[in-house]
C-alpha cells in the first residue's frame, strides 16, 4: 500500500503572532512518523495547495493537480494542505486521498500554521514557491471556476501551469496573483 503521507502538521514555531515563520521553521510529519521541514522538499518548485475534502471545487481540481504533478514530477512537488483538518478524521482524509487518487502528499494544518504562513483564505488556493522559498504565484489554479457553482465549459487560462512554465523559461511570472474561487477557510 502506498504510504499515506502526511497527516499532521506540527509547529515548532515561535509565537504565531511573532515574525512570519520561514519554511525552515515549519515542520510536517508523515503518518509514518517521519518529520521533515517544509524546506526539505528538494524540488525546484513547491506548490502548496489548500484543499478541503468537502469542497466540490477541491474535489474537481484533484484531477488537474494530479496531472500537473505527474507531468512535472522532476521539478515540482505539490503539497496538499487541509486547513481545519481537525474537522476530518484520519479515515475521512484517507478516503478523500483514495477516492480522488491524489498522487501528492496531504498535510493536516490543525493549528493553521500554513494558513498563517501563506495567508490562504480559500480552498482550492495555490502558492507556488521556488527552491529559495520565494513566492512566485498565488491564487487560482486556472480560470475554469468563475464563482461558486458557476464554471466555464473549458479553461482559458492555466495560471499554475503558466507560472511554472514561465519560471522554468526564466520569464516573468505573470500574472503573479489571481483571485481564488472556492470554499472559505474558517478561522476557528
What topology emerges from the helices and strands here?
Blueprint (H helix, E strand, L loop, with lengths): L7 E4 L14 E4 L5 E3 L7 E6 L5 H16 L4 E8 L6 H10 L6 E4 L3 H6 L3 E2 L1 E6 L4 E5 L5 E3 L2 E2 L7 H10 L14 E2 L4
Parallel strand pairs: 4-5, 5-6
Antiparallel strand pairs: 1-2, 2-3, 4-8, 7-12, 8-9, 10-11
Characteristics:
five-stranded mixed β-sheet; alpha+beta; 12 strands; three-stranded antiparallel β-sheet; globular; 4 helices; single chain; 188 residues
Explain how this protein is built.
The chain has 4 helices and 12 strands, in the order ββββαβαβαβββββαβ. The N and C termini lie far apart (34 Å). The model is unreliable at 1-19 and 29-33 (pLDDT under 50). Strand 10 and strand 11 (150-151) form a beta hairpin. The strands form 4 sheets. A 5-stranded mixed sheet has the order 6-5-4-8-9. Strands 1-2-3 form a 3-stranded antiparallel sheet, with no helix packed on it. It has a two-stranded antiparallel sheet with strand order 7-12. It is α+β, with helices and mostly antiparallel strands and 188 residues long.
Amino acid at each position: 500500500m502506498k504510504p499515506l503521507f502526511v497527516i499532521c502538521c506540527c509547529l515548532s514555531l515561535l509565537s504565531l503572532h511573532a515574525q512570519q515563520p520561514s519554511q525552515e521553521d515549519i515542520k510536517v510529519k508523515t503518518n509514518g512518523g517521519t518529520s521533515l521541514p517544509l524546506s526539505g522538499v528538494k524540488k525546484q518548485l513547491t506548490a502548496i495547495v489548500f484543499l478541503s475534502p468537502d469542497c466540490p471545487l477541491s474535489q474537481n481540481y484533484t484531477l488537474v493537480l494530479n496531472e500537473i504533478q505527474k507531468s512535472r514530477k522532476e521539478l515540482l512537488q505539490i503539497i496538499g494542505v487541509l486547513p481545519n483538518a481537525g474537522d476530518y478524521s484520519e479515515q475521512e482524509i484517507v478516503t478523500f486521498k483514495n477516492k480522488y487518487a491524489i498522487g501528492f502528499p496531504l498535510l493536516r494544518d490543525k493549528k493553521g500554521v500554513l494558513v498563517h504562513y501563506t495567508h490562504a483564505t480559500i480552498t482550492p488556493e495555490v502558492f507556488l514557491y521556488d527552491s529559495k522559498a520565494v513566492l512566485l504565484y498565488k491564487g487560482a489554479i486556472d480560470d475554469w471556476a468563475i464563482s461558486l457553482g458557476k464554471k466555464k465549459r473549458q479553461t482559458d487560462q492555466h495560471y499554475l501551469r503558466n507560472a511554472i512554465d514561465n519560471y522554468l523559461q526564466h520569464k516573468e511570472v505573470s500574472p503573479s496573483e489571481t483571485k481564488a474561487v472556492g470554499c472559505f477557510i474558517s478561522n476557528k
